[in-house]
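Review form for a predicted model. The reviewer records the input and the model, then writes brief findings.
Reviewer: anonymous (R2)
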Amino acid sequence: MVVGPEFGPLAGLALALVDRRWKLARRAALALVIGFPIAMAVTALATLLSIWLGLFDPAVVLSKNSATEFIYHPGPYSFIVAVLAGAAGMLSLIGRKSAALVGVFISVTTVPAAGYVAVALVLGEQGRAAGSVLQLLLNVTGIVVAAAAVLFVYRVARRRRPAPTRYSAAHAAAAARSVGSRNPSVAEVPFGCRGSPNTGIDGEAKAQWRYEGSNCRVLD
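Model under review:
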C-alpha cells in the first residue's frame, strides 16, 4: 500500500494509458482535478487562520529560503525526482509490498507544490503561485509517465518469459506435491504442462513429466 493519497489516481491514470481504458482515465483525472483544489482550499483556510492567530509571520515565509525555494522554482531535477517517484510507486504496486517510504517519496514531489500554491495566493504572491503550479504539473506528468513506462515494460517482460523447463523450480514444487497422492485427481500438473497424470499399479500418481513444447507427457 502506498501512503501518498494522490498516487492512487496517478497510478490509475498510468494504467489507463497502458491499457487504453479511457473511462478509467477520465475517473482518475477527475479525482485529481477535484482532489487537489480541495486540498489547496483547506490549506488556504489554514493559512488565513494561522495568520489571524499569529502562529507564523508571513515575512518569514516570503523571505528567500533555500529550503522552500525549489517549490516555486522548478528545474530539471524536479522532473527527475518525479520520474523516480513514479517508477518506485509502480514497482511497489507490482510487487504488492507495503511501501510507506515510497508513499512519502511520492508525496514529497506533489504536496509541497500544491500547498505552496494556496499559501502564495493568500499572501498575494502570484508569481510564486504560478511557479508552484508549474512544479505540480511537472511532477504529476513525470510520475504518470514513469509509472506507465514501468508497467508497460513489466507487461512485455511477462509475455516474453520463457517456458519452464523440466528442471525448473515450479516443476519440482508441483512434482513434490503430487508424490504420495492416492487420488489421481488431487495430483497437480506441473506448471506449464497440459493433461493429467497417470497412476501406477498402487494408485499413486506419477510425478515424472517430459516437456514437448508447451505440452507434457508422462514418462512410463
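Findings: The helical segments are 7-19, 22-53, 58-62, 69-72, 76-95, 100-122, 126-159, 169-178.
Further findings: DSSP finds eight helices and two strands in the chain.
Recommendation: see findings above.
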